[in-house]
Amino acid sequence: MLGQLEMPTLADATGEEREAGVTWHSGLPVNWKGGGSSQAPLDTFLKRALDVVGALVGICALGPLLIIVAVMIKASSPGPVLFRQRREGLNGRAFDALKFRSMREADCDASGVTQTRINDPRVTPVGRFIRKTSIDELPQLFNVLRGDMSLVGPRPHVANMLAGGRLYRDLVPYYGERLAMRPGITGWAQANGLRGPTRDPRLARERIDHDIAYIQNFSIWLDLKIIVMTIVREFFTGNGH
Hints:
The chain is an alpha+beta fold. Helix content is about 40%, strand content about 15%. InterPro entries: Bact_transf.
C-alpha cells in the first residue's frame, strides 16, 4: 500500500518551512525534517477492507443514480458513457481512471493536460451538472475495487500535470512524494476545498502539501473523517466544486 517514501527536505521547503521545520495544513502537520509515515500491516489490511466494503456499498446504494446518469449522457450527446484517462497511481504506475463523460466526444482530452475553464464550451449541459456535483467521479468506485485507487488518498493526476502554467514537478520539487500511497476518490486537500484547475501556483503547492500531510498522518480514523467531510461538502453545503 505504502511506497518507499522519502519525505521533503528543508532544501525543498519555503523560507517559512525552513525556519519552522513543521507546518500545518488544515490541522495536519508536515514535518519538513523527515519522519514520513510508516504503515503497519494491520493498517494496510484495514484500509483495503474499508476500500472494498465502501466501494461495494457505494455502487449498490448509488446504482439507480449511476444508471440514470448513464442514460442522460447517452441521450444528450453521441459517444460512450464512460471516459478513460491514463493517470499516475501508486509509485507512478499508470492506470485507466474511469469517469462519466462530461464533454462532447470529439473534445475529450485523453492526456488531461488541457484543464477545463469556467463555462468551457467543450462541456455538455449534462456534463456541467455532473462535474459541479462530482457525480462524474463516481465510476472510480470500480477503480477502487480493482485496486488501482483507494477511497481516500491524493487525487490521481495525469503525467506531465500542469500547475500555474508549469509542470507540477517543476513547481513543487517534492511532487513525486504524493505517489507513495494509492490515489483516492477524495483526499485531505479536496475535503478542505482545494480542488479543480491548478492555475494558482500558491494553491497548487498547498494542495501537494495537504497530500503530504495526509501521508505523514495516515490512519483509518483520518480516512473515515475525510469521507464524512467530503459527503458533507458535496451533498449538504454545496461547496463541492
